[in-house]
Amino acid sequence: MRIGNITLPAGAGLSPMAGVTDAAMRLLCAEMGAAWSVSEMLSAKGWVLANGRNKNAQELLLRLPGEGIAALQLFGREPDFIAEAARRLEHAGFDFIDLNFGCPAPKITGNGEGSALMREPKLLGEVVRAAVRAVNIPVTAKIRAGWDSSSINALEVAQICEDNGASAIAVHGRTREQHYSGTADWNIIAQVKRAVRVPVLGNGDVRCGRDALHMLEETGCDGVLVGRAAQGNPWIFRDIRAAMQGMPYQPPTPMERVEMMMRHFDLETQIHGEHRGMLEMRKHIAWYVHGLRGAAKFRDMIVALDSPQAIQQAITEFAQSQNDPAPSPSAEER
Description:
This protein has 334 residues and is an alpha/beta fold. The chain has helices at residues 23-31, 44-49, 55-60, 79-89, 106-109, 121-134, 154-163, 186-195, 209-219, 236-244, 254-272, 274-288, 295-304, 308-323, and strands at 2-3, 6-7, 13-14, 36-43, 70-75, 96-101, 139-146, 168-175, 200-203, 223-226.
């Protein structure tokens, strides 16, 4: 699949997630087979007005060797700010720019940004056109099915994105009203694919390799994006690649999961510093240990710890516990 002048390898892409898809997450997913990834979203207006001096934004722009192909995601509703931010960030090290018209968070939609722009198709098109004209790298768009069940307009919006120069369109098959609940409507993705000529990427309810194959077959989309299913599970990209190649997939062992968690922790502290890295990692730890023996108790303990050293020690002890024989069930459990 090609996005503009970029050829993407086989496999699925890592969908943008605020507070999740930083450089550490993108690197680990790339190592596990992600074909490309998209950064956390960056406010175009905020970046321009701060003249790039915001520390959090600078961390968001960090790239690590080995990440592979990655897009920088911008959000905003003012074409001039989108154009200026895109122009300034064109050489920040990302391969293309993705425009966010899908975020359902109230603090974003309350400002008329993110998925709120699905209600203003004309302005949305102007934002796309401004970004496309400002840079020489590809510009893509991420949209939803619509604002709510009474205003499903992904087809119209996708055509507007294409008409204004978008090189690809990612479609999340839920409305803004749904947030991440209910079921993604893959038929919306199929309709968009039939209506536009640029590549269409499907997003929503892909939790394993089999799901990815089903989405490709049912919608005809050109590629698949994985979001929440990659949280604590970067191996999903290996699973999807195996499914696409007709090969068996071996899930990670408990020890492999714990070792990946430790590596992720080290990367987060390198990127954000010890304290911030520790805070960022708490949610990732909860995702990594989901379903493992003693996970609930371990999660509760991690929240109470207040130093990276204590967390590293707890992870080491938890890893050792996974090698211990499982306790015999009590008489009541039997």
